[in-house]
Amino acid sequence: MPTAPSEVDDLVPALVALRRDLHAHPELAFQERRTAGIVAGALRLLGLEVHEGLADTGVVGTLRIGHGTRSVGLRADMDALPMVELGRSAHASRHAGAHHGCGHDGHTAMLLGAARHLARTRSFDGTVHFIFQPAEEGQGGGRRMVEQGLFERFACDAVYALHNWPDLPLGQAQTRPGPIMAAADRFDIVLRGRGGHAAQPQHTPDAILAAGQLVTALNTIVARRIDPNDAAVLSVTRIEGGHSHNVLPAEVTITGTVRSFDPAVQDRIEAALRDTVAGVALASGTTADVSYTRYYPATINSAPEAALALAAAQAVGLDAAVAPRPAFTSEDFSFLLRERPGAYLWLGQGRTDPGPDGERPLHHPCYDFNDDALPLGVRWFCEVAERALAPPSVVVGPA
Ligand SMILES: [Zn+2]
Ligand SMILES: [Zn+2]
């Protein structure tokens, strides 16, 4: 049976307090020791098997009910962003330079709430692994958990996660089969001349001019080298070089990111970028070094699990729909989805407290998870586990 709203409402006051405590004490990637300690302590109190130290600060709690051999992993991320919070709530960050600007405080609280609820209802047959991962924000904590044997130690037939989503109103949820979040690549290009007097350009290749030409050329790659039916974006985000008005610098650094959904498109963009850099360097007389790193793969939902995630959302009263298109942001739950079937859900967050500029998107310095979403996420996680591990005699579809 779907988890009725009243069944988790009694958990909400404690979850709100926990979420705000986590918000006030944000911890950066692989430093989530206080958070991991709170999570592990709470899971132990529930009587779960608790495993600490996977990927340094990761925690996995295991709840086995009945004799079923099926298993499911539910995942939350615990880390905060390296940024200053400008919010002024009573639970604003007390850690300088760290801010829960992506709402992972809410994810952690919701998954703990689901563990609490499932530990008391015991309404499934099999094993649920509650996976609390470190370092989602660009540091690949999910990858490290997989590399350190997450699925060898904790068998999961499928894995599920959610992200709070300010672009959707509270009470709505979306996911989709196939790509839902983009692959994220980073490039760092160093163009080198020799450096020299600005009045004597004939004596040195001009790395500044080459950088200007290169930025323009890089911005033609997606437009001219990629099939218009394939979605991708390339952004140059940093140029650094030069210190004086009368010196041609010896080197200029250009940094940026590429987002796409298909490894073949990634291959084509990387090759075109390398060709473009080589061509500009040749024409300008500079030399160039290119570093190109594919740090997060695309987040790809498997179709049956995306259907289960949507059905679960509908069953607990969310206004759930198939997402019309993926997002170009990225997510390291992708590493778990490369190993196991599963799905990633966007849980509507709304913008209940718009700032003077009107919007507070994820990673905004005033971002604060909407506590009204807590019971919605708890119910969804519980419903997913109950559907994935429904006792054989119980018909809960679609499976
Ligand atoms: Zn984020
Ligand atoms: Zn996030």
Automatic annotation (TrEMBL):
Hydrolase keyword on record: yes
Keyword tags: Hydrolase
Ranges for domain Peptidase M20 dimerisation: 187-277
Superkingdom of origin organism: Bacteria
Matches recorded under InterPro entries: Amidohydrolase, Bact_exopeptidase_dim_dom, Peptidase_M20, Peptidase_M20_dimer
Keyword Hydrolase on entry: yes
Listed PANTHER family: METALLOPEPTIDASE, PUTATIVE (AFU_ORTHOLOGUE AFUA_6G09600)-RELATED, PEPTIDASE M20 FAMILY MEMBER
Name of protein: Amidohydrolase
